[in-house]
Amino acid sequence: MMKEWATVISWQNGEAVVSCDVKSSCSSCASRAGCGSRILNKLGPQTSHSITVPCDHPLVAGQKVELGIAEGSLLGSALVVYMSPLVGLFIVASLFQMLFHTDLAAMAGAILGGVGGFLLAKGLAPALSRRESWQPVILSVGLPPDALRIDTSSSTDNV
Question: Cα–Cα distance between 140 and 66 in angstroms, integer?
């Protein structure tokens, strides 16, 4: 089970809208100057994602919850997203190469197959995301933000 902490934005009718912060691993790496991931992280403006998760007990805005998702669903979705364009690329490129016997045709087939595989993955995504085993669940709930108050003043300060 993959786990991540999220912050509750709102809760209504048994559904919680939670915000998950995007974590970047580029803060402490020694090769920050030449890192491609660091550059790509800077390009994207989105630093948090909001999702809706079913929850029976009431939650308040600002409360932390621990979300979990099964590894199998994560691997399955990655397989669909990455492999369908790759398989489409190779199959259609091979087919065009066999039919037309030119590299230009194979390149055109590779482009068509890659785009077709991407569209196939995009079409399969809504159906696969409705599976209950692929949905995130709330594993644990933190205290509401106003439930715990720590008084830092000591009794010697009042004397």
Answer: 5
| CA–CA separation, 60 and 80 (whole Å) | 36
Q: pLDDT (tens digit, 9 = 90+) per residue, 26-80?
A: 555 666 566 666 665 666 656 678 889 998 889 999 999 999 999 988 899 999 9
Which pair of structure tokens corresponds to residue 25? 């691993």
Q: Are the beta carbons of 65 and 51 closer than 8 angstroms? A: no
User: Which residues, including other chains, have CB under 8 Å from residue 59's CB and lie 6 or more apart?
Assistant: 8, 11, 16, 65, 141, 144
| pTM of the predicted structure, to 2 decimals | 0.66
For the beta carbon of residue 26, count every other beta carbon within 10 angstroms. 15
Confidence band, pLDDT 50/70/90 cuts, at residue 87: very high
Q: So where are the chain's domains?
A: 2-149
As a whole number, mean pLDDT of residues 80-96 equals 96
Rg (CA), the chain: 24
- Residues ≥6 apart with Cβ < 8 Å to 134: 69, 70, 73, 76, 77, 128
**122, two tokens:** 């995009």
CB 22, CB 46: distance < 8 Å: yes
